[in-house]
Design brief:
The chain has seven helices and nine strands, in the order ββααβααββαββααββ. The chain has 255 residues and is an alpha+beta fold. Bound molecules: adenosine-5'-diphosphate. Its EC number is 2.7.13.3.
């Protein structure tokens, strides 16, 4: 609590009176702590690839100076680390841009079917590399929502990319668009390993990744679902996660 004491203005010679106010600042404290945790996490995530880049540069300048085979291998790893840093900076910028316009409601009319087709096409190279078949299920009639087209593309890119990466072993990802009486919904369904229930409520936290194995073997920043949540909040849409271990996962966006 923040406590303030102020004297009351009273006619002369009256007994002095004071007003004491208590203000609950636990929410402000919480936001402050979240902000500093976020900066600490972001710095740590950037520092790791940076340290590795420095190590490789030192090796290339020293012991590996004349070893062309090693040089090629190290340069390849350095390129991957640099790509990782760019992905991270892009995601951090997306988050901060979204925070800046959090109070502005998006106002375009967006047809969802072309958005989903666009995302499927732009992820085709990744899906091919992972040998996953992304199948779209679109109704005959158009389905529109009020929103921001680029942001919705980002939402479905993140969800479908995750389904391909983490549900790779299921081989297929189904994306279904449905019109509802008072809105619309899109489900992204994979037949991968699923997510244990204790992780589900934390998935949209910044930098949250389910397992160390995920963070080692699958490219990602841990910011994808945090970005999804921010965008959906602006759109007054909900993210519903259903997952069964060993069966697969379904992320549904309900507008
Ligand atoms: P990342 O950049 O790690 O993909 P996200 O915020 O997009 O970050 O996802 C957070 C974590 O949620 C992932 O690291 C992964 O462990 C888990 N996850 C997301 N989507 C799926 C999915 N379809 N199946 C299983 N796990 C998933």
């Amino acid at each position: 609590f923040m406590v303030r004491i102020a004297p009351l203005a009273l006619p002369e010679r009256a007994k002095p009176l004071y007003v004491m106010t208590f203000r609950d600042i636990s929410e402000l404290r919480r936001i402050d702590r979240m902000r500093s945790d976020f900066v600490a996490n972001a710095s740590h995530e950037l520092r790791t690839p940076l340290a590795s880049l420095r190590g490789f540069i030192e090796t290339l300048l020293g012991p590996a100076r004349n070893d062309t085979k090693a040089q090629e291998r190290f340069l390849q790893i350095m390129l991957e680390q640099a790509n990782r840093m760019s992905r991270l900076v892009d995601d951090l910028l997306s988050l901060s841009r979204l925070e800046l316009k959090a109070h502005l409601a998006p106002a375009q009319t967006v047809e969802l079917a072309p958005v989903l087709t666009h995302v499927r096409d732009s992820l085709a190279p990744l899906a091919a590399e992972l040998e996953v078949d992304v199948r779209l299920h679109l109704p005959d009639d158009g389905v529109e929502v009020v929103g921001d087209r680029d942001e919705l593309i980002q939402v479905f890119e993140n969800l479908i990319e995750n389904a391909c990466k983490y549900g790779q072993e299921g081989k297929v990802v189904d994306v279904a668009l449905r019109k509802l009486d008072n809105g619309a919904e899109v489900s992204v369904i994979d037949k991968g390993p699923g997510i244990a229930p204790e992780h589900v409520p934390r998935l949209t936290e910044r930098f949250y990744r389910v397992s160390v194995a995920d963070s080692r073997s699958k490219k990602g920043t841990g910011l994808g679902l945090a970005i999804v949540k921010h965008i959906l909040t602006r759109h007054r849409a909900r993210l519903i996660v259903r997952s069964d271990l060993g069966q697969g996962t379904e992320f549904t966006v309900r507008f």
